[in-house]
Amino acid sequence: MSNHLNILRAGPSMTVQDQGRAGYLAYGLSRGGAVDALALLEGAALLGQSAELAAIEMAGMGGEFEVVEDTRIALTGAPMRASIDGVNVQWNASYVLPKGVRLSIGAATTGSYGYLHLGGGVCGALVLGARSAHLAAGIGARLQDGDSLEVGPDAGGLTGQKLGPDGRFDGGLVRIVPSLQTEFFADSEIERFAATTFQRDTRGNRMGVRIIPEGDGFKTEAGLSILSEVIVPGDVQVTGDGMPFVLLAECQTTGGYPRIGSVLPMDLPRVAQARAGAALRFQFVTLDEAVALEQREATRRKSLRGAVQPMIRNPHHISDLLSYQLISGVTNGDDLDREAAG
Amino acid sequence: MNDIHTTAWPQLKTAGFNGIIVSFGAGLSEPANRAALAFRDALERAGLAGVEETSTSLVSTYLRFNPLALDHAAMRDALRTLLATRDWFAADLPQGRKLWRVPTVYDPAFAPQLDEAAAAAGLSRPQAIASLSSARVRVQTIGFAPGMPYLGELPEVWNIPRQTALTAQTPAGGLCVAIRQLVLFPVATPTGWRHIGQTAFRLFRPETDAPFVLRPGDEVVFEQASPEAYANLQSDPNGGAVSEVLR
User: Fold this and answer.
1) Which residues does A150 contact at the CB level (< 8 Å), separation at least 6?
2) Is residue A281 part of a domain?
3) A207-225 mean pLDDT
4) How far apart are CA B77 and CA A200, in angstroms?
5) Would you place residue A3 in the very low, low, confident or very high pLDDT band (cuts 50, 70, 90)?
6) Do both A66 and A211 map to the same domain?
7) Does A14 share its domain with A154?
8) What is the pLDDT, as a whole number, of residue A342?
9) Rounded to whole angstroms, how far apart are CA atoms A176 and B177?
């Protein structure tokens, strides 16, 4: 019998997610896939496997799980309280989950979307070339108590590995490029947008998040009768009441509300992960600057596997032992984390 | 022959970090709609290096590419070269088009904003139903939600704006109106368009070999059906809709 992950208790919004379905834009189907695409890469790096394998995305809250065979797992994205057989475990790390032992994942301590990766990935129905649930399109569904998901064959590899913590879970600065409808906004409104601090609203899901400005909403000269035009994830759409929405993986493919700009793909996880109330600011960059930023980030992402480190400080695994502070003996325990993040 | 470089359209516009739109007009027109469809078709055939995906909206063609491999300026040059090969506004409609007749309930219990939309158009309820149910409209593009058509063009009286606020949820099969266009929702969705009719037509069937039913260029008549007939229509994936090939 093949390996299975049993969901003993499902959090309120857990779905199977991979990199989504590219190529159906002409049919009105957005790509979808993990709302924090970087978390998929981190899970793949921790388990030393393909980033195309599907994982479980958990919005705000995890659940309780067990496997029918010993299984390598990794936990990425928004840090959540987690334990294996009652023993607390740290996030952004890989483990062996022994068969029949309970994995409990609780609420996110920061950020919005946590991910559970399994060695071999989650199997399940391929619909239009992907395993991702696309709730807005009615493909797949939220996971329920009692669901049992097939797990693919695992080529095996290290566990007990970790990646340093990342700063994308508390809001912050997001880079944005002008886009096809930026000209519908007066220069003064664009300048005000770039100078405004926004709060991530409680309203948000895989389609997009509403952001609330400190001051007034944003006015456009386009009115309510502009032609519907293509939408891409990252577009910042301003609805009739002046409130901006940042559109995410599962957004609609066209829309008639004007968009003031488009968030760089590399910064979109920061928007998706910001929890309600987190502060977000937007900085306009040119296309050339955006290419340079994305190029640097692509290089960093390619080397993610090199940033994976063993969790326990085993001297055999530390190549630059002398650089560690061995005298005080007191650290806050995240030295390796900081180094990996740097 | 038109020299496209001396006219205002088409225009190239940035669409986010990794996209460009070729726009064939500021407003909806049939030549611009045909141009967008034909240019996308040509773009697919041309197989330009770096292009990852193409689609159309009402009067524009969109392409997604990888700017880390080929920058925006180079992609724009390639697009201008392809644009210069012909007069896109003179392009024919796509081949293999169909005419669909879709039973539609216009009763206010199924169409909660019909009266409001009729008033905005300056029509009585019977006048509005007569106008909507007899109009033969064309699928101008598929977008927003999977398999969802934008259809037009309705008579000038239907040039009414979208709502300022969104309707929280319009049901699947809902027919909605704004700016001389109709949209038909494949899934329940929030919208700024007014809900003026209800069909049982399933536009997206992910479990089948033909997941998307309508194509750009298809024509549709939303014929009036009675509220009593609706339950029966729901038992048919086509919702009672029938099609014939247009020649």
Assistant:
1) A2, A3, A4, A122, A123, A124
2) yes
3) 87
4) 39
5) very high
6) no
7) yes
8) 29
9) 33
Nearest chain B residue to A225 by CA distance is: B161
Cβ contact, residue pair B13, A180, below 8 Å: yes
Distance CA A287, CA B70 (A): 13
**Residue B7's pLDDT is what?**
62
Tell whether A81 is covered by a domain. Answer: yes
Q: In chain B, which residues have their Cβ closer than 8 Å to the Cβ of A239?
A: 166, 192
Strand B167-170 and strand B189-191: pairing?
antiparallel
Asked if residue A24 has pLDDT above 50, the reply is yes
Q: Dump pLDDT digits (tens) for A68-113.
A: 999 999 999 999 999 999 999 999 999 999 999 999 999 999 999 9
Looking at the fold, whether A130 and A224 belong to one and the same domain comes out as no
Q: Which of residues 13-72 of B touch A (CB under 8 A)?
A: 13-19, 21, 23, 27-28, 40, 52-60, 62, 64, 67-68, 71-72
- pLDDT, one tens digit per residue, over A175-196 is 999 999 999 999 999 999 999 9
pLDDT tens-digit map of B12-60 = 999 999 999 999 998 889 999 999 999 999 999 999 989 999 999 999 9
Instruction: Please name every residue paired with A15 in a beta bridge, in sequence order, or none if there are none.
Output: A57
3-state class of B170 per DSSP? Answer: strand
User: In this structure, what is the dihedral angle of CA atoms A140, A142, A146, A148, given to the nearest 10 degrees?
Assistant: 40
Whether residues A28 and B186 touch (CB distance < 8 A) is answered with yes
C-alpha–C-alpha distance, residues B153 and B139, integer Å: 9
Confidence of residue A313 (pLDDT cuts 50, 70, 90): low
Residue A338 has pLDDT above 50, yes or no: no
Q: What is the number of residues in chain A?
A: 342
Domain boundaries, given as residue ranges, for chain B: 4-90, 98-245
Topology classification of domain B4-90:
Gyrase A; domain 2 (3.30.1360)
> How far lies A201's CA from each of A191, A205, A209, B13, B63, in Å?
22, 11, 7, 31, 32
Q: Which residue has the tokens 């009593």?
A: B228
CA distances from B7 to A88, A147, B1, B31 (A): 67, 60, 12, 15
Right CATH for B98-245 from 2.40.100.10, 3.10.20.90, 2.40.170.20, 2.60.40.10:
2.40.100.10
Residue A85 and residue A193 share a domain? no
